[in-house]
Amino acid sequence: MTPHPADQFCRRTRRELLWEAGAGFGALGLTGLFAHDPAFAAAPEAPKGATTFVNPMAPKKPMFPAKAKAVIFLFMYGGPSQVDTFDEKPELARLDGKTIPVKTFGRGGHKNQGRVVGPKFAFKNYGQCGKRVSDLFPHVGGCVDDIAFLHGMYAESPIHGSGLLMMNSGRLLSGSPCLGSWVTYGLGSENENLPGFVVMLDNSGGPINGPKNWSSGYMPAAYQGVQVRADKTPIHDLALPPGTTREQQRDLLDRLREKNQEHLAARADNSELVARIASYELAFKMQQHAPEAVDFSKEADETKALYGIGDAKTDDFGRKCLLARRLVERGVRFIQVYSGGNHNDHNWDAHGDLVKNHTLHAGATDKPIAGLLQDLKRLGLLDSTVVIWSGEFGRQPTAEYAQGTGRDHNAYGFTSWMAGGGVKGGVSVGKTDELGNNAVEGRFHVKNLHATVLHQMGLDPNRLTYFYGGLDQKLVGVEGADPIKEII
Predict the structure, then answer these.
(1) What is the pLDDT of residues 31-48, one digit of tens each?
(2) What would be the CATH architecture of the domain defined by 70-235+292-487?
(3) Average pLDDT across the chain, whole number
(4) pLDDT for res 354
(5) 189: which residues sit within 8 A by CB, 6+ positions away?
(6) Quick check: 407 and 81 in contact, CB under 8 A?
(7) 106 by DSSP, 3-state: which?
């Protein structure tokens, strides 16, 4: 809180006045109350000789029995078209090429009419549930009995930057912790040798906003995502410097830790310093354990083929999906994998040629995603792992330009799906209108998706809070949000 000049005393807010007039003594009483609140789990004991240091990523108990222990978020950056993937709309075929009255809001602003672009891919039934899926995702189609489709999703912004922030953090502006940060803040990590929150980017680059999408915001830096690559060098600058042994580095870190803790003793509220101490220790451990995590040499050829590894089209995303499974096995709490990066057709942003764009990106991800679901299920990990598939929004039923098949952004109604971690399979919840333009039934905001993830992880989305800016902040906003009960 920024100090006020003395002559500004009467201009303070009531919250500031109550806090400062009590000299913070109220907080001492709250500490005792919080000690019995599952939302504020007791901190683990500090290492011997380090009375002021607490590992912020130490495992914490959930608020109630959890269905899931880990999350894999498959992020289709750019906005895949719901009507060309999982939300079939026969009416579009009948109106193909016709200009009709329809209200849309995208990159091009508000419009009251548009030229309909009919579906460019055939749909057919899959699974015992009979879910209709387009030809873009035949392999995922084979997994529909394990998937819950959310067809009534909506958000506020049809712009990539704010849309990405909304899907990741529940906010349109940067500066707030993302979903992965909230999960690791609430539960910590079960592996002290690897990051608790891992991010893997597309080989073409990262999404717009960059690290803001996996930022810990106003939380300690220890909860932010760590970029990892699915190759022999998982993290840059991880190897020991030439001529340095692990014993020498251990001695150096011990001395550095000793000095840092002396500095921290007088600055116990410096979360950045706590995170820095923890990061040094984690980096040292990762030098030994991270290369093993990305070593696929012991994986069976059959498993690699399941993910499409070895096929030029699917190899890159397949490796990321296989690494996601291996990280789950090793106790990593939250893994986010991006499909698409950079700009234009390097991601799912199909403004020009939708067929070319979606064929490219679905072709690169369909088999690896299905392989991930099948492999998790085969190993008994799907029951304890929430898998999310979503973009930051969907696309419109009409063309953006006078010519071509490209669609503009659409945040009014789009499709996300979830699987595993206690989520019902073979169900579809929510509905868009006959054109797939607006969510009209079972409308669920992005915050409801976040609330569902936290709930499955044993965290109450309306009680998991972090005090900042004079408020008990929540991922789902101070107003709160409920999980999607229809899929639990």
Answers:
(1) 333 333 433 333 333 334
(2) 3-Layer(aba) Sandwich (3.40)
(3) 87
(4) 96
(5) 57, 59, 195, 196, 197, 331, 332, 333
(6) yes
(7) strand
The number of beta carbons lying within 10 Å of the beta carbon of residue 396 is 30
pLDDT at residue 236, rounded to an integer? 62
Q: What angle do CA 80, 86, 90 make, to 5 degrees?
A: 110
DSSP result, 282-327: HHHHHHHHHHHHT--TTS-HHHHHHTTTTSTTTHHHHHHHHHHHHH
| Structural contact between residues 183 and 453, judged by C-beta atoms closer than 8 angstroms | yes
Instruction: Identify the weakest region by mean pLDDT among 224-233, 270-279, 425-434, 438-447.
Output: 270-279
Q: Return the beta strands (E) in 123-221 as ranges.
A: 123-126, 131-134, 147-154, 197-200
The DSSP letter of residue 145 is G
Q: Which amino acid is at 419?
A: A
Is the pLDDT at 455 greater than 60, yes or no? yes
DSSP state letter for 139: H
Residue whose structure tokens are 């995590």: 293
Half-sphere exposure of 298 (CA within 13 A, CB side): 7
The ranges assigned to domains in the chain are 6-36, 70-235+292-487
Position 1: which residue type? M
Residues 6+ apart with CB under 8 A from 112: 101, 102, 103
In terms of Cβ atoms closer than 10 Å to its own Cβ (0-12, 13-18, 19+), residue 222 is buried
Sequence-distant (≥ 6) Cβ neighbours of residue 172 within 8 angstroms? 156, 157, 162, 165, 166
Q: What is the pLDDT of residues 175-208, one digit of tens each?
A: 999 999 999 999 999 988 889 999 999 999 999 9
Read off the pLDDT of residues 461-483 as tens digits, 9 standing for 90 and up.
Answer: 999 999 999 999 999 998 999 99
Interatomic CA distance for residues 423 and 384, integer angstroms:
10
